[in-house]
Amino acid sequence: MSNALIVIGHPYWKDSVANRAILEELQKLRPQIKLSNLIELYPDFDIDIEAEQRKLIEADTVVWQFPLMWYSCPSIMRRYLEGVLSYGFAYGSSGSKLENKRLIASITTGVKQSVYEGGILGFSAEDLFKPLAQVVKMCSMLWEPPQVTFGLNSAGAKGDEIKLEEIRIRCREHARLLSERL
Fold first, then answer.
1. What is the pLDDT of residue 1?
2. What fold, for 4-181?
3. How far apart are CA 11 and CA 74, in angstroms?
4. Where's the Flavodoxin-like fold domain (predicted)?
5. Hey, where are the domains in the chain?
């Protein structure tokens, strides 16, 4: 088992059903994991770059946990990547602090996989993850296959406890699969 850091990049954490359920289950399975919930720590997006870099240095495995939004990671996660993975730290001639650390993108989507795979979007989910894989490569980290669970849109399920429980069950499975990789 590795020393894992989960960086949570959900901009609407207080309203999250899926990502929250994944993290709650993951904490039960792996209570020693470290969490960095960006929106709770930095609601104004003023990320403490040095503090986040220290967390990364201490980790062997890093997980980026977020919902896919507008075919990419949410703005708070993007801000994190732009600030924390800086030249001289994560890449460049002297930027080797993250070299050979494992990276797993743990992603939830609102729509079903079939919408991506030959569906109306025209791009596979894997196509959408390529920019993240390139960031990881630029930082000399080890990109591992993303842990993705599709079709977790809870917006229409408010008040429908059966539907919400179905989502939570799928999220617990997502957490179990992710836990086995840590």
1. 55
2. Rossmann fold (3.40.50)
3. 7
4. 3-170
5. 4-181
Cβ partners under 8 Å of residue 23, min gap 6: 6, 8, 35, 65, 175
Asked if the model's pLDDT at residue 8 lies above 90, the reply is yes
Contact 67, 10 (CB under 8 A): yes
Helix (H) or strand (E) run with residue 178 in it: helix 161-181
CB neighbour list of residue 66: distance below 8 Å, 6 or more residues apart = 8, 9, 10, 19, 73, 74, 77, 105, 106, 107, 108
Cα-based distances in Å from 108 to 33, 75, 115, 170 = 20, 15, 14, 11
What's the rounded Cα separation, in Å, for the pair 138 and 59?
18
